Amino acid sequence: MAKIRVVIAKPGLDGHDRGAKVIARALRDAGMEVIYMGLRQTPEMIVAAALQEDADVIGLSILSGAHMHICPRVMQLLKEKGLDDVLVVIGGIIPDVDVPVLEAAGVKGIFLPGTPMQVIIDFIAGHVRTRTEQV
Amino acid sequence: MKAAAARTDRERWARDVLEPALARAPERDGPFTTISGRPIARLYTPEDLPGFDDARDLRDPGEFPYTRGIHPSGYRGKLWTMRQFAGFGTPEETNARYKALLAAGGTGLSVAFDLPTLMGRDPDHPLSLGEVGKCGVSVMSLADMERLFDGIPVGAITTSMTINSPAPMLFAMYLVVAEQQGADWRTLSGTIQNDILKEFIAQKEYIYPPRPSMRLITDIFAFCSKAAPRWNTVSVSGYHIREAGSTALQELAFTLRDGIEYVQYGVDAGLEVDDFAPRMSFFFNSHSDFFEEIAKFRAARTLWAHVMRDRFGARSERSWKLRFHTQTAGVSLTAQQPYNNVVRTAIQALAGVLGGTNSLHTNSLDEALALPTEAAATLALRTQQIIAHESGLADVVDPLGGSYFVERLTLDMEREAREYFDTIDAMGGMVEAIEQGFPQREVAEASYRFQQAFEKREKIMVGVNAYAQPDEPPFPILYIDDTAATTQLARLEGLKRRRDNDRVRRSLDALQTAARGRDNTMYALLDCARAYATVGEMCDALREVWGEYQEEAVI
Description:
The complex is a heterodimer of chains A (135) and B (555).
Chain A: E1 5-11, H1 18-29, E2 33-41, H2 43-52, E3 57-62, H3 67-80, E4 87-92, H4 99-104, E5 109-111, H5 117-127, H6 131-134
Parallel strand pairs in A: 1-2, 1-3, 3-4, 4-5
Helix pairs in contact in A: 2-3
Chain B: H1 2-24, H2 54-57, E1 81-86, H3 91-103, E2 108-112, H4 115-118, H5 142-148, E3 159-162, H6 167-181, E4 190-192, H7 197-203, H8 210-227, E5 231-232, E6 234-237, H9 239-243, H10 248-268, H11 273-276, E7 280-286, H12 290-311, H13 317-320, E8 324-328, H14 340-354, E9 359-361, H15 374-390, H16 404-427, H17 430-435, H18 438-455, H19 483-498, H20 501-516, H21 521-530, H22 535-546
Parallel strand pairs in B: 1-2, 1-9, 2-3, 3-4, 4-5, 6-7, 7-8, 8-9
Helix pairs in contact in B: 3-5, 6-21, 10-12, 10-16, 12-14, 12-16, 14-15, 20-21, 20-22
């Protein structure tokens, strides 16, 4: 079975990358192929990487409060590139009131501080497109 | 003889008292380690301090090496400064919060800037999208600095500014505001964080590569020693290193080694160590593992005193004394059951006070969810006031001095920090160690180890991996919308229309000339600030000269 390919990125100006790095390692240890893009990635860079890397999943870590600008833009660009089936998950400090708006924009998993790594791993494994569907 | 008798007595205790007790009621599973993974013994006794001589190894407070504190009378003279970090939205909104904090008995201000300001970008830069005024206050030019301190006499208070890569730009603006208010730079007091090394290690808010970044810092050392001698030129910070997941020891060792690097660069730039070292201060995290934190603070003072006297030959006692600010651990706060955070913060604040902190920020209970509401920020300040006035802690100096456990931990951390110093010295220094990714890797490893311990429930976070409570009621938070961005974008446009743009251009050109040559950049930056050049313009001018740092993304 092909490995699940995950792009992990930190969009925006925030440099607090502890969460992004820990989840990147945890996903890799869980057997996924992780492409860690690092800091200060624009939505355009993230979507271009997802396309180039044939990613199944995009994971974004945002703690600065910029998620309401960044996430809808990522979703829009994915649609434009025909990558609607890429699973998008985000982690960070996301106020409750923003959750339904992000979900409506197509973000499938929203993980708040304190989420065990295993919950995120299981969520990705359970929601990612299967390789057979891609054919 | 006495020691031998004590040993025999302890053997008897272990045989006759401890072992039967353990047979009846075994200990919990453990592992008995600190939050940093340091093994902890069941009991500490004089045998854990072999050869420890109070007179030699534990000098009185106010005396070298200041293990028991830098003030002979501790907090009996002056309490620590209660300095609450705050900033959000527009300068006017933050100005109102500052006035409320001062009215509530806060004794110093601490400015939180938004990410565009911290990264030297104007609000109209593409990367500023969604970030203006979110994590702090947006200050893009002198005009905003004027608004931020409107009605607040900067000569009468002390202000700490958490700003690093653009520290010289924001400091220049603050100095101009002081000038406008008629305050004397020579008596102006406050701090700029200005600690770029920990940005490369942990928080990642860097702009320029390490070496030109160090040049900006030594320029500030030289400028302040002449023009603003009471200003604290750098706050060498372990806080962010710890928040990024380091152990307590790594926080201690990397922070002090960063301090050594700054002193070395200052000396190499031709400065006299006693002319600038007394204005360096430190900033530590206070995490939840109570005794390890207290030992860390005590070890920090001891190490610094030795480093300054023995390594740099500093002769002034003021150079030997490590002064530090403490903030409770943001990373320990949980989004779940937020009221629990009040208790965590109180315990961490106690550790800071028992460690002899010179100033303290206590986090608000809602900070795992958002920036704090005013009510939450007030409660955080009250926590400090209760410790100061009700607990009795402020009436006695270093009450844990002489504790077998605390002294053992202090000595161990001191020794292990020196081992880290040796490793980093062997690499050529901290700049070289950072270029090789050494501290970054150490912190990432420690952070992953903690995460694994948390997942295995070896380390418990109450309300998260134990005692969780499904269906928690919603919690009211401060929601910061985009009105600040709209305001600031409009202001930026207006500013560029109204100001003398030729003067701006000339001041930026002069800044580039200073940066290419050897002139102190602070004087050029003061002219840029007076001309109302923006933070983005000043930072861009230097980007053109020095380029930008790109870190290799490693996990």
